[in-house]
Amino acid sequence: MQDLARIRAFVQVFDAGGFSAAARSHGRSKALLSKYVTDLEDYLGVRLMNRTTRKLSLTEAGEAYYREASSLLQQLDDLDATITDQTAEPRGMLRVSAPRNFGESTLAPAIFEYLKKYPKVTLDLRLEDRYVDLVDEGIDVALRISTLGDSSLIARKIADMHVVVGASPGLIKTIGVPQHPDDLRHLPCIIDVNLQGQSNWRFIENDKTISVPVSGPLRVNSPLAARKAAAMGLGFVVLPSYLADPLVASGELVPVLSGFLPTGQTLQAVYPHRRHLAGKVRALIDHLVDWFAVHPIN
Predict the structure, then answer these.
(1) Residue 76: how many CB atoms within 10 A of its CB?
(2) Residues 280-289: pLDDT tens digits?
(3) For 163-260, CATH number?
(4) Rounded Cα distance, 12 and 22, in Å
(5) Please, what sign has the CA dihedral across residues 297, 100, 158, 153?
(6) Is residue 11 within 8 Å of residue 73, measured between CB atoms?
(7) Considering the chain, what is the average pLDDT of its residues?
(8) What does the alpha-carbon distance between residue 81 and residue 272 come to, in Å, rounded to a whole number?
(9) pLDDT tens digits, residue range 121-158?
(10) 92-159+265-294 shares its CATH topology with 163-260
(11) Neighbours of 201 (CB within 10 A)
(12) What is the spatial distance between Cα 208 and Cα 150, in angstroms, rounded to a whole number?
């Protein structure tokens, strides 16, 4: 097999559109690149490139060789980068997206501890309650409370989570405790439009998912506002446990239907498909897994 220098020269020349352009881009002489490509062709016993003074094109054999060679070189480059990242301290700009309320109340201590651990990383933390397109917006990793629905992304579980359905003691005293999720069809509910399903709340009965359509006096795009409305007696609400538990502990919120609540919801780190995951991203994900193992999300 020819050495990598000759294979890389062939790929670089075609990518650049010619020997002169490749020589300028990669700091090598045109003569050396030409020699490398000729040596490769001589070794393979086949012409890879058609050369004219105006145009460079690949032969049929050259097209097949280019596809495989460029893929192999990319894998080798990714392998080199992976090993380098494993031995080097994480550094550079890291762009992270997370839900606002979760970020402010629960994620912040964990992610700020990461910054203390890796002072050469600069963090751009974006807390907002909307779906973020990671690729279009240049986000390295997003923290999401959901199941992975986009096949163009990769997810790693960070921690288990659960939800709470509840209402104020005053409302419970007035209308009673619902015994089955279907009872909510006829009761006032507060709808957080950020919630998956929005006004169709999901429950589990006999190991099967059931969906209950609900309605009520308020639709809002903030779980904190929904929590406040529930505490003031406006209706039943679905909240993540990290927001519901403080009010349950203080007696401002009464949990209901606990035997019907779905399990398996998780906090996930989601990132785009890439052959090579940057060391700063890998270090953050590992740090969050370790952090929430010690500081579970109630």
Answers:
(1) 12
(2) 888 999 999 9
(3) 3.40.190.10
(4) 6
(5) positive
(6) yes
(7) 86
(8) 17
(9) 999 999 987 777 777 788 889 998 765 555 556 778 88
(10) yes
(11) 26
(12) 23
